[in-house]
Design goal:
430 residues, alpha/beta, nine-stranded mixed β-sheet, four-stranded antiparallel β-sheet
Length: 430
């Protein structure tokens, strides 16, 4: 049995109640669910992964797997055909289905790394909606950038800025996701490192930081816009008490309800006297890890009006130019754009454009992902060639005749020297 901090155990038992807490503890004796979310632009279904996949009921493209494949050894994972994502966090898809408005022109994921919820947002929102995905920590922003590039959607921008930078830039959004940094209590079963990092002091630090982030986000929200607040923790300081603070701080804030099904086993508010609709996923009760989510609207009698002057999509159209297929910013330098894919028509892995494609075997695909040079068929034209596995682009090589030099970004390359020979086998074994 995993040893949990005594003060966490005491506080959480009181919060959840004895019966619910015991079910939570029992979840540590079970294997955590394995789930993926398919990329609807690249994969129609999950049958290629393994037999008997089971849909995640609150996500259109989510699937539970019977066992955990070796994702690192699957070229289709690296091609962005699917994202390995914890099932509870996919509840965002159900939320978007219920709150979506046709006039949503722009959205912001303010704390986006590593990219699970951002790629879900990008797949769920209209193609012409501009999505900004931001991560303040530069190293984590690089991971976010990789996942966004591989997901391959147009109108998706990655930035490396602080929430206050967006507010200073006077940018306005119709939808803002604040999946805020938290104490991580909901991830204890999945990641034991979060147990070692937990402390009451960190809880105190987190709820104060979360309020700062929400304050900046609220200033960036259009009238009638939606803010989605979420954490992966249990305590009320970072959850219900922050929502209560938000409602008292901003007179134009109102909580919106989301319809759920009883068989999903979602828990509501655990704070005595707080009756606003909030949604908790608790391991052992709901099928996933820990999640808290609340949807807040910036109410206004003229909610159909938005500040078009500062709309990000309008700024991009009017004040930014294109150079070499990439965005050239003329404003808002402080946002430190890492990636801009505005109205792109092809999937790109930050490699030169190529009209030549070549299908490779599993062994050759793994060599490519390790950064090795490839030997292409003698009749392959020289120049930039896009390498594909099962019809899906992995990246590019530069064919010089005797060999094809690898152009796959070095930070993305697989480090292992072991290459399985049977592709089907790696999908069915850890």
């Amino acid at each position: 049995m995993t040893q949990l901090p005594a003060i966490f155990t005491e506080n959480t038992r009181l919060l959840m109640g004895a019966e619910r807490f015991e079910r939570y503890l029992q979840s540590f004796e079970e294997d955590a669910p394995v789930s993926i979310r398919l990329n609807p632009r690249k994969m129609a279904d999950g049958r290629w992964l393994m037999e008997d996949v089971e849909p995640v009921p609150w996500c259109r493209d989510g699937y539970y797997l019977k066992q955990r494949p070796n994702f690192t050894m699957d070229p289709l994972f690296h091609a962005g055909c699917y994202y390995v994502q914890e099932a509870a966090s996919m509840f965002l898809d159900e939320v978007l289905r219920q709150i979506f408005r046709e006039n949503t022109l722009n959205a912001l994921d303010l704390c986006a790394a590593p990219g699970g919820k951002s790629t879900l947002l990008r797949a769920a929102l209209p193609t012409d909606c501009v999505l900004y995905s931001n991560e303040p920590v530069r190293q984590r922003a690089s991971i976010l950038l990789e996942n966004v590039e591989k997901w391959g959607y147009p109108n998706h921008i990655v930035t490396n800025a602080y929430p206050r930078d967006y507010r200073k830039a006077k940018m306005k959004f119709d939808l803002i996701l604040c999946d805020v940094p938290c104490s991580g209590e909901g991830m204890f079963r999945k990641d034991e490192a979060t147990i070692r990092e937990w402390s009451p002091q960190n809880v105190e630090k987190c709820w104060q930081l979360q309020r700062d982030i929400v304050s900046d986000a609220w200033g960036c929200l259009n009238d009638g816009g939606i803010l989605i607040y979420s954490t992966c923790t249990f305590n009320t300081k970072e959850n219900e008490e922050n929502i209560r603070w938000l409602l008292s701080e901003f007179d134009d804030a109102e909580v919106l309800p989301i319809d759920t099904k009883p068989e999903w086993h979602i828990t509501g508010s655990l704070l005595e006297g707080f009756h606003e609709p909030v949604y908790r996923f608790i391991p052992g009760i709901s099928r996933g890890e820990g999640l808290f989510l609340c949807v807040i609207r910036k109410a206004n009698v003229e909610c159909g009006m938005r500040n078009e002057k500062w709309s990000p999509s309008r700024l991009l159209n009017e004040e930014c130019g294109m150079r070499n297929g990439r965005i050239r910013r003329l404003i808002n330098e402080e946002l430190r754009i890492q990636h801009s894919n505005i109205a792109a028509k092809r999937e790109s892995f930050n490699t030169p454009h190529s009209t030549l494609h070549i299908e490779v075997s599993y062994a050759e695909a793994m060599k490519f992902l390790r950064g090795e040079a490839l030997i292409l068929p003698p009749d392959t034209p020289r120049g930039i060639v896009e390498v594909c596995f099962m019809g899906h682009p992995l990246g590019c090589v530069k064919n010089i005749g005797s060999r094809a030099n690898n152009l796959y970004p070095k930070p993305w390359r697989i480090k292992t020297t072991h290459i399985p020979t049977d592709y089907e086998a790696i999908l069915r074994h850890t």
